[in-house]
Amino acid sequence: MFYKAISLVFLFGVLNTNAQQNDSITKIDSTSHQLKFNYKQLIIPGVLIGYGVIGIANDQLLSFNHQIKNEVTEDIDNKITIDDFSQYAPAASVYALNAFGVKGKNNMRDRSVIFVTSYVIMASTVLGLKSIVHEERPDGSSNNSFPSGHTATAFAGAEFLWQEYKDKSIWYGIAGYAVATGTGLFRIYNNRHWLTDVAAGAGIGILSTKLAYWMNPYITRKLFKSSSENKSTSMVMPFYNGQQYGLGFVKVF
Question: Could you read off the pLDDT of 149-202 as tens digits, one per residue?
């Protein structure tokens, strides 16, 4: 039951990549390389977020959460903390692929602006909901379970990887979503989150990156209207991994 449930999150991610690939309305402008808005792209993250939000108070979904917890905790011997690192893998892959000569859709500057925007939206949403909902974690360690920050981070990165490399191969996006799904799976396996937390986190992550791409033309004009692409720019990237806050610094030449 546990594996069937978590596979639904991955299925939604794969459907998300296929829906975007097959939607003729969702085209990339050849000059600006920006994603055009299409309401259909809101369906899958909306369903995931809706499932998580409804699950906060729905008796049937709460019961399903506990069934999965009981099934998983019966088999847990040792926690596997790979999710603390895998959450960053999809986004890091975008920069790694570019470093090895596999060029993505956007240049370094625009890509980094999109990345920062996505993570600001994602982190703000996750932290805001955690402070409002106060859901207890499955292991009883704290009351900030909803939504899963690790999962949101991973799925934001997976959508980022998909958007940058979908014109190269759909398999980049599928690989990113597989890693993101694995991150969510391990959050449940390690008894740190409920399925509803993971589903909501996945939806928030996907939606945050979509919003970042839609907002990027406006943000880029405001930030760089008087600078050329070749000039040096700097930016600060916030991050949150569910326990620690931090800032990363990027300088683009």
Answer: 999 999 999 999 999 999 999 999 999 999 999 999 999 999 999 999 999 999
- CA-based radius of gyration for the chain: 18
| Segments in the chain forming alpha helices (H) | 2-22, 43-55, 59-73, 83-86, 89-99, 108-133, 149-165, 170-189, 195-224
Phi, psi angles (nearest 5°) of residue 251 = -120, 125
* Predicted model pTM: 0.81
Asked if residues 205 and 154 have their Cβ atoms less than 8 Å apart, the reply is: yes
Element (H, E) at 247: strand 245-252
> Can you read off the two tokens belonging to residue 27?
């085209």
- Give the domain ranges of the chain: 2-252
Taking alpha carbons only, the member of 135, 158, 175 closest to residue 53 is 135
